[in-house]
Amino acid sequence: MSPEAAPVAARLEEIPANLVTKCPSCNTMLVTKDWLRDLKTCARCSHHFRLGARERIAILTENFEEWDAELAPHDPLQFPDYLPKRSAAQIKTGAKDSMLSGAATLDGRPIAIAASDFGFMGGSMGSVFGEKITRLFERALDEKRPVLTATSTGGARMQEGLMSLMQMAKTSAAVGRLREEKLPFISILTDPSMAGVQASFASLGDVLVAEPGAMIGFTGARVIEQNLRIKLPKDFQSAEFQMAHGQIDMIVPRAKLKESLAQLLSLLLD
Amino acid sequence: MLSRWLHLEQPIVELEEKIDELKRFAASENLDFSAKINRLEEHKCDVMRRIFADLSPWDRVQMARHPKRPYSLDYIGALCSDWVELHGDRAFGDDGAIVAGFARLNGRSVAVIGNQKGRDTKERQIRNFGQPSPEGLRKAGRVMEMAARFGRPIISLVDTPGAACSPAAEERGISEAIAHSQMLMSRLKVPIIVVIIGEGCSGGAIATALGDRVLMLEHAYYSVISPEACASILFRDPAKAPETSQQLKITADDALRLGVIEEIIPEPLGGAHRDLKAMSVALGAAIEKHVSALETLSPEELLEGRYQRFRKLGDLDDPQATTAHLNGAPV
Ligand SMILES: [Zn+2]
């Protein structure tokens, strides 16, 4: 297992006191131990670093028990360079694909949770990702669990072609089924939440909660700039931008995220 | 001025010009060249058959984007009577890139939604090159919900290079509009027939492509991303698009093999634009066949079937299952 895969808290003890981590946003040198205690946010500018899928689930829940860990990707198109790229990602993250899902409790309440790992091919959605998300919603419906998903993704996985595109339909339809029951689905949008994933289940949460500064959108800013030959403001598609345009419900700093989610679930269910 | 014909059509167009010239000359001089003209016509058919028997995926992308290719409103005009177009999403505006309304098809009242492209510069702007905006998808959703309420089957014609790409589309929630449209279509209790008539590209296409049956015209393409965008992201070179279009497996044959579509509707020799009437007859017959079959199902069977249709799509290794999955079928 890579260091990325270990929960933040468990690593605190092992970190030497003199180790520092540089904030890419304000260039402050942060004491790594403090930075980990702050859940990988910058104490100076509050920049939220990206979390791996396991870390994400670890900071939000207890008693995580993984589902569908055995599902492994294929190469439906025999797409050039897909296998070596994917193998490298598997070695780097210790995971078979970019999606981690399972059962957990949040403040004692049983939930179903999933998180995508940006470190695995940009957190892209291929067949395994789509299948795990679909099973998550289906099993949550069976076991009457509220659903939380935390996305960090560039979108659909091009290397799986049409099979990836179909995951958008499949996961959106799965949310449709969940909505027949009184089971909340909270979608947590972390940096970045884009394209094919944002244009499917991730936008369909009953509540959309974003982390500060997360980039959220469909077409990336650079592509829009190139196509229209325009210059976009730096905050274009930031969580704050999407909030101002009525596209998300709330922006919650990482330290308060768990508390907010518990509060929302309680308001909807208790 | 943009050439109205594709490079691959040049030999055909040259022969046609020759035939026309001969006909004009024969008429003006009152001579009989019919034997020679017949030979040339036969030769032209041979040339067309040869060219169209061997189209590359990139050729098909060009065919799907052909400036003369029939668009949604052309098919609606040729196939339907009593077309009444409805407008606006009741929240922001009316998107020219999507048409939606009701019409009669083979005597049956249906809802039709379709991506719409423009023919000339002005219309292309109004239609935004067939790239739907949030308000267009929300208009389509409104009309589809109405169709479900009145028990009318839905025909969705897909022909888009992708969803609208602009700050305005992002500000009004293009992601949510695409997502919501798919979820909505998965829950409507009337038959939904989707036909990819030209370009079926990316999120803009899947937004209105969740149906009980998905059909494709022979020279249409269906892809998660445009070959150009894929080439520039993966190979940092949009000029590699012809190669990428091969690798992405985007032709109707590929989509059928992957289990993503039910049927390929053959096009007239030379493509849909050479014979709109014949193309419309074939399209109408295919739609009729599938709507009739679906109309025998109960609403519950319909929804379950549609859910499972997409549910099984995916290619992965599931050791828990007794056999490996390829699109849900044992391999
Ligand atoms: Zn900082």
Structural notes for this entry:
The complex is a heterodimer of chains A (270) and B (331). Chain A folds into 2 domains: 1-47, no CATH class; 50-269, 2-enoyl-CoA Hydratase, Chain A, domain 1 (Alpha-Beta Complex). Helices cover 37% and strands 20% of the residues of chain A. Chain A contains 10 helices and 11 strands. Chain A has helices at residues 8-11, 32-37, 53-60, 82-93, 127-143, 161-178, 195-198, 221-228, 239-244, 254-269; strands at residues 20-22, 29-31, 62-66, 72-73, 99-106, 109-116, 147-153, 185-194, 207-210, 216-217, 250-251. In chain A, the strands form 2 sheets. In chain A, strands 3, 5, 6, 7, 8, 9, 10 and 11 form an 8-stranded mixed sheet that branches. A two-stranded antiparallel sheet of chain A has the order 1-2. In chain A, helix 5 (127-143) packs parallel to helix 6. Chain A is globular, with a radius of gyration of 18 Å. The termini of chain A are far apart. Residues 1-5 of chain A have low confidence and may be disordered. Chain B is built from 14 helices and 11 strands. Chain B has helices at residues 10-29, 34-52, 57-64, 72-79, 121-126, 134-149, 167-171, 174-185, 202-206, 227-234, 241-247, 252-257, 276-294, 299-311; strands spanning 80-86, 98-105, 108-115, 154-160, 192-201, 213-217, 221-223, 263-265, 315-317, 325-326, 329-330. In chain B, a hairpin with a 7-residue loop joins strand 9 and strand 10. The model of chain B has no long low-confidence stretch (mean pLDDT 94). Chains A and B meet through strand 4, helix 5, helix 6, helix 7 and strand 10 of A and helix 7, helix 8, helix 9, helix 10 and helix 14 of B. Strand 4 (72-73) of chain A pairs antiparallel with strand 9 of chain B. Zinc ion (ZN) binds at residues 23, 25-26, 28, 42, 44-45, 47 of chain A.
